[in-house]
């Protein structure tokens, strides 16, 4: 099994916690809106690719200054080496921001539904909009109100097999989709650097998530060996 990609979300300047899990992940997300002052110095210490994210309050973030300043921070992140920039599909003046991002980084266009999981058809429309305006990576995050919502967000990945995307549901009822996202074709999934530093409801730690993936890999190897031993 190809190693599932984990993106560790950085929400504070705790460099010790960040370094402790760096070998277990493929990339970081730097939450500018949660870290606050000092994030610029922090990113200089990262040894893995990173996503710059400055989440607006409307989509669950804590950015309190004006919109122009929010975008300025993302542009600054590109100058400091961000490999990917996460910007919301509903961002005002999006058509002006995307070219600035794509000059030097990948553009991840995100959509967040904080109360429910929309229908599959509606989410397919969201992905189409993201692709039309220039997304390199599409991201649709919902909130699970029932177990079946896990299936809906994972089905969305299957509907776009040639598109780099991330899709799962937040909340305790969405845990299955968080884990399964990169196992069913999603580009990666998110995890917290440690317990108590979650950036979204239902997020689990890097260590717990990697342990789950290692157990799945061992099971696959065992099943493969058992199958071939029975044939012989």
Q: How would you describe what is shown here?
A:
With 232 residues, the protein is α/β, with parallel strands linked by helices. The protein has one domain (6-231): Alpha-Beta Barrel (TIM Barrel). Helix content is 41%, strand content 19%. It contains nine helices and eight strands. The protein has helices spanning 15-21, 32-35, 39-43, 67-79, 94-102, 120-132, 148-159, 175-180, 206-231; strands at residues 6-10, 27-31, 50-53, 84-88, 106-112, 137-143, 165-170, 189-192. It has an eight-stranded parallel β-sheet. Strand 4 (84-88), helix 5 (94-102) and strand 5 form a beta-alpha-beta unit. The longest helix is centred in the C-terminal third of the chain and has 26 residues, at 206-231. The protein starts with 5 loop residues before the first strand and ends with a helix. The mean pLDDT is 93.
Topology:
Blueprint: E1 6-10, H1 15-21, E2 27-31, H2 32-35, H3 39-43, E3 50-53, H4 67-79, E4 84-88, H5 94-102, E5 106-112, H6 120-132, E6 137-143, H7 148-159, E7 165-170, H8 175-180, E8 189-192, H9 206-231
Parallel strand pairs: 1-2, 1-8, 2-3, 3-4, 4-5, 5-6, 6-7
The tally of domains stands at 1
Dominant shape: globular
**Topology, number of strands:** 8
CATH level-3 fold name: TIM Barrel
The overall pLDDT average reads 93
Spell out the helices and strands N to C.
EHEHHEHEHEHEHEHEH
CATH class: Alpha Beta
- CATH architecture descriptor: Alpha-Beta Barrel
**Residues in helices, as a percent range:** 40-55%
Report the CATH superfamily: Aldolase class I
Oligomerization category of the chains in this entry: single chain
Q: Distance between the terminal alpha carbons, to the nearest Å?
A: 23 Å
Q: Tell me the major beta sheet.
A: 8 strands, parallel
Count of separate DSSP helical elements:
9
**In order across it, which strands form the biggest sheet?**
7-6-5-4-3-2-1-8
Low-confidence stretches: none
């Amino acid at each position: 099994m190809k190693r599932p990609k984990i993106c560790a979300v950085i929400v504070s300047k705790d460099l010790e916690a960040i370094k402790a899990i760096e070998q277990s992940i493929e990339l970081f997300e730097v939450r500018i809106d949660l870290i606050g002052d000092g994030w610029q110095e922090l990113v200089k210490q990262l040894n893995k690719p990173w996503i710059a994210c400055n989440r607006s309050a409307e989509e669950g973030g804590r950015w309190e200054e004006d919109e122009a300043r929010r975008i300025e921070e993302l542009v600054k992140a590109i100058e400091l080496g961000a490999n990917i920039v996460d910007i919301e599909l509903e961002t005002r003046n999006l058509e002006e921001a995307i070219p600035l991002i794509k000059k030097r980084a990948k553009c991840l266009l995100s959509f967040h539904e904080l109360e429910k999981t929309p229908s599959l058809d509606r989410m397919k429309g969201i992905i189409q909009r993201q692709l039309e305006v220039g997304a390199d990576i599409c991201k649709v995050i919902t909130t699970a109100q029932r177990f079946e919502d896990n299936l809906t967000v994972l089905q969305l990945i299957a509907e776009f097999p040639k598109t780099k995307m991330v899709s799962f549901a937040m909340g305790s009822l969405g845990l299955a989709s968080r884990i399964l996202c990169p196992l069913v074709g999603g580009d990666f999934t998110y995890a917290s650097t440690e317990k108590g530093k979650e950036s979204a409801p239902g997020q689990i730690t890097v260590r717990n998530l990697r342990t789950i993936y290692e157990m799945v890999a061992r099971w696959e190897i065992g099943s493969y060996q058992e199958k071939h031993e029975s044939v012989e």
